[in-house]
Model the fold of this input.
Amino acid sequence: MGLALGIATDALAYGMVLYIISIGLSVTMGLMRVINLAHGAFAMIGGYLASWGLQSLGLGYGTAILFAVAGAVLIALPLERFLYRRVYGTHDPLPQVLLTIGITFAIIGIANSLFGPTLKPIPLPEIFRGPVDLGFRTVPAHRLVVIAAGAAVALGLWLLVERTDFGIRLRAAVDDARMASALGIRTDVIYAAAFALSVALGALGGVLGAEILPIEPYYALRYMVTFLVVVSVGGAGSIGGALGAALLLGLVDVTAKYLAPEYGEFFFYLAVIAVVAAFPRGLLGRA
Amino acid sequence: MELLRVEALTLAFGGLRVAREISLALASGDRLALIGPNGAGKTTFVNLVTGQLAPDAGRIVLAGEDVTRMAVAARVRRGLVRTFQISRLFRDMSVRDNVLLAILQREGRTARAIRHAATDRTLVAEADAHLERLGLGEVAGDRVGAIAYGQQRLVEIAIAVALRPKVLLLDEPAAGVSRAEQPRIVAALAALPPDIAVLMIEHDMDLVLRLARRVVVLAAGALVFDGSPEAVVSDPGVRAAYLGSYGT
Done:
């Protein structure tokens, strides 16, 4: 029982980290139709900035998160304006893949040269470090924070997309950019805003998840496939799908690593293959 | 009052000249049909005027303002509105939301981005009024993808009207609509606001004769006729353009 609850808490926390990062990727892939292999690099930039802010600039944890998210967005926006905008919706995915893998390697190189090859700690504030007693069990406070943040992101995104005028414009621009501009919608502005949102979520996930996915220069490549897998299992562009996929894969991965660690990632990818075989467009993919 | 003036609009794709110095003026209240054989450059002309394509030469003046180099969305905000040959509605949204979006754009309410148009009673009432007028009240809450094609074409007209255009360019508004549904489209087009200028690409001469008071004919990217619907049928230049297209 204790083991099951331990697995459940860890799985939920891991799933939420995957969700917060991957939903950003899902926005660029599903909505703007760009295979953004550099998404992990933006998450990593968030992690580096938070670590730098906490350790060298003396920022508090909350301020460091804001600093990391805003910094990652500021770094990413010129890339959107001058590079990504050229490959939105291209029929051939190769330019997107080459461009974004190039950006990834450039960011890895810059991170390595500025911060060195070692792991960058993101020390948690005192209140997140200790255990929290839930009555039937104690769990690390940080896990609960991550779970709550994931739930808040899911709810906030759903409200933004389904319940605001920005959301209705975004859905229109995604559905048919030509028709949207025929209504007078500035699709370039909408796309830049959605891209900024995507990077912000990646960076937030990079900071909050650093306990589970530690920040180091090869972070950008190491977890790239994991994030892509969550998006394809969930269905690109689907908020609910990405949540379902992240939680399911988080559960499978954590359970397998508790019970059969010698199999490594085997069960994770087995689950991926099973879901994609049953739902080729992902759990909640658009037709 | 002149609302749209196109001066010597020219475009070539490589060696293929798809628009050859087309000049045209539309005034308030005009109902103009643009006809021509397949491949004559009718849709290209609309794409040039609305800004989907950039001309090699020529000028587009909307209500006295040169819009030749302006982006599509900026022209729309100034009252240059179009519909598409094949229905391009937002299929996953409701009929009402499609019209609401147009109203939202017209009002330019970007400053109030963090709120929801569907909760604004004035906007919803206006959207519903547009839909009622075209007999679409019953399907207002339905997903666009789920309603009949003829109804979808009517929704496009509702959207175009909701944008309050000065100049409206309709690319085959009745294409793909069954004979039985056609009268509703004709009625909707006949009931467009009288003061706007309307240019309509249409193949169906029956429809042209009923709705247009002036006809222009394009052939191989050039304007070969500009006159009354009655005169177009007997014009030798027009006949040559159509027969010529069949001869090649």
Residues 2-31 of chain A form the longest helix (30 residues). Chain A touches chain B at residues 163-166, 168-169, 171-172, 175-176, 178-179, 181-187 (CB under 8 Å).
